[in-house]
Amino acid sequence: MTSTPAPPYLAVIFTNRRAGWGESDVDAAYGAAAQRMEELARTIPGYMGIESARSDDGVGITVSYWETEDAIAEWRGHPEHLDVQASGRADWYEWCELRVAPVERAASFP
């Protein structure tokens, strides 16, 4: 779980269904790309963290947290990220959807 500071901040919510889910070669390539994207996102000023989950049928939700719209724009336009997005549309996803939302309130407990 990602620990974020007190709101406000922005959440980028990416939902998808993986194509080739459960095929070891596809899963390995996807996992490597996902790990690289998380490493790369950490280099963007304003990146705050990420949480991700995937169901048994390949549906996934990834939420990344950002301080500003400018930080999100920098991430969205990063050349390596753009290449991976193209691979996702061509090879890894049956469908995907992206939402950006402000987080105005948050609560947690141990």
Overview of this structure, please?
It is a single chain. With 110 residues, the protein is an alpha+beta fold. It has a single domain (9-103), classed as Alpha-Beta Plaits (2-Layer Sandwich). The chain is 36% helix and 34% strand. The protein has helices at residues 24-41, 69-76, 79-92; strands at 9-18, 47-54, 59-66, 93-103. A 4-stranded antiparallel beta sheet has the order 2-3-1-4. A hairpin with a 4-residue loop joins strand 2 (47-54) and strand 3. The chain is globular.
Short description:
The chain has 110 residues and is an alpha+beta fold. 36% of the residues lie in helices and 34% in strands.
Query: What structural category characterises the helix and strand content?
Result: alpha+beta
Strand content: 25-35%
How many E-type strands? 4
Shape call: globular
* CA-based gyration radius: 14 Å
Count of discrete domains: 1
Residues in helices, as a percent range: 25-40%
Strand order of the largest sheet: 2-3-1-4
Mean pLDDT: 91
Q: Determine and state the CATH class.
A: Alpha Beta
Number of helical segments with 4 or more residues: 3
Main sheet? 4 strands, antiparallel
List the helices and strands and how they pair.
Layout lengths: L8 E10 L5 H18 L5 E8 L4 E8 L2 H8 L2 H14 E11 L7
